[in-house]
Amino acid sequence: MTVSPHFNFKQGVLHAEGVPLTLLADEFGTPLYVYSRQALNDAWQSYADAAAGRNVLVCFGMKANSNLAVLNEFRKLGAGFDIVSGGELARVMAVGADPAKIVFSGVGKQAWEMRAALDAGVKCFNVESEPELERLAQVAAEMGKVAPVSLRVNPDVDAQTHPYISTGLKENKFGIAIQDAPAVYARASAMPSLKVVGLDCHIGSQITQVSPYLDALDKLLVLVRTLQSQGIAIEHLDLGGGIGIRYTDETLLSPSALLNQVYARLHQEQLSDLQIVLEPGRSLVGNAGVLLTRVEYLKHTEARNFAIVDAAMNDLLRPTLYDAWHDVEPVQQPAESAQAQTYDVVGPICESGDWLAKARTLALKQGDLLAIMSAGAYAFTMASQYNTRPRPAEVMVDGTAFHVVRPREALADLFASERTL
Ligand SMILES: *Cc1c(COP(=O)(O)O)cnc(C)c1O
């Protein structure tokens, strides 16, 4: 049975590429994140194919999964990076990323973060407000540098996704209202310590249709023309991230479908010499990871059946935060005769919101190993130590080989830096 191209059942046991997940659970314990190196490569390849022969820079939205091993794979494949903090800058520089391919996004950049990015020499700051523009101009001037800027505009389009991951509507905190952009660009281009290089938007996440992108693009192209008439040249157009993945049965938008349509519009407008920047996060890593967890107890109450597992909301927050769906697969296929029941799969944390999956039909017994699928994006990066739980280990599978890319945190490490009075 095929679950995904890189996670498959062989002789009744779920494998990551050539490695049985039972083996990894025995070796490293649970909860455990497992990534497929081939899945990262294949996801990258679909962007590379779409970009071939075009002036496109793909910057991995690294907040989706910032493990150094993941970053290093993408660096070697030629990726740039979209960062949202000074911490992410330090992380990605630790694997030797090319700063000329780094774009710096985020609504709340602090002065130290701007200084670090200017020192590194990033490609561009995606500026989200006028006060941020003023601060950046001042920081750059103090350093005797010129900061490359792109304004993140809010095109006010509906990405038709979950409200928490929709970012391009006028009521969101993100970006500069598109109608205000010409005036802000005029201010930016008059500041000697700034250089206008681009125009940026990011309208949301887990987008499965091309129309929201094209709605945004049309508005951006009008703006590019307006700016040109003001004598402000735009070198690149950054369309953000947002392409969705298959969590269950979503129909997908491919990078090539998106770029083909984008380039059709650019040709029509005779703007195909613009560089296109994309900032995909989820679509590069989401289906490259699973979270392995073991059933600790089965609890049958009057209202519900609960499978209490050893992973929890601190390990995988998406269900709690976004009401997100992750498929749940028993790692060893149950016997034909096993009786399936409807279970809520929940963690041990003292919160009613601590659940991973609801109302799933599963044939379970205590000690069973489950794989929470599509857990490569916004999964480990959102993990916390709530309830003084060490964060899971992370393992990368490569064919029949596997590598620990982050060991499980030791209990003593969780409070090693704390001091009593
Ligand atoms: C989160 C984010 C991304 C990545 O989004 P995905 O939906 O994971 O592709 C890209 N750009 C910006 C500005 C972001 O905040």
TrEMBL record:
Pathway: Amino-acid biosynthesis; L-lysine biosynthesis via DAP pathway; L-lysine from DL-2,6-diaminopimelate: step 1/1. It catalyses: meso-2,6-diaminopimelate + H(+) = L-lysine + CO2. The keyword Protein transport does not apply. It is an enzyme of class 4 (lyase). The keyword Lyase applies. One of its GO terms (biological process) is lysine biosynthetic process via diaminopimelate. Pfam families: Orn_Arg_deC_N (PF02784), Orn_DAP_Arg_deC (PF00278). Its EC number is 4.1.1.20. Substrate binds at R282, R318, Y322, E351, Y378. Residues 33-376 form the Orn/DAP/Arg decarboxylase 2 C-terminal domain. Its cofactor is pyridoxal 5'-phosphate. It comes from the Bacteria. Pyridoxal 5'-phosphate binds at G242, E279, P280, G281, R282, Y378. Residues 40-285 form the Orn/DAP/Arg decarboxylase 2 N-terminal domain. CDD domains: PLPDE_III_DapDC (cd06828). PROSITE patterns: ODR_DC_2_2. The modification N6-(pyridoxal phosphate)lysine is found at K63. Keywords: Amino-acid biosynthesis, Decarboxylase, Lyase, Lysine biosynthesis, Pyridoxal phosphate. Homodimer. Specifically catalyzes the decarboxylation of meso-diaminopimelate (meso-DAP) to L-lysine. NCBIfam families: lysA. Belongs to the Orn/Lys/Arg decarboxylase class-II family. LysA subfamily. This is Diaminopimelate decarboxylase. The lineage of its organism: Bacteria, Pseudomonadati, Pseudomonadota, Betaproteobacteria, Burkholderiales. The gene is lysA.
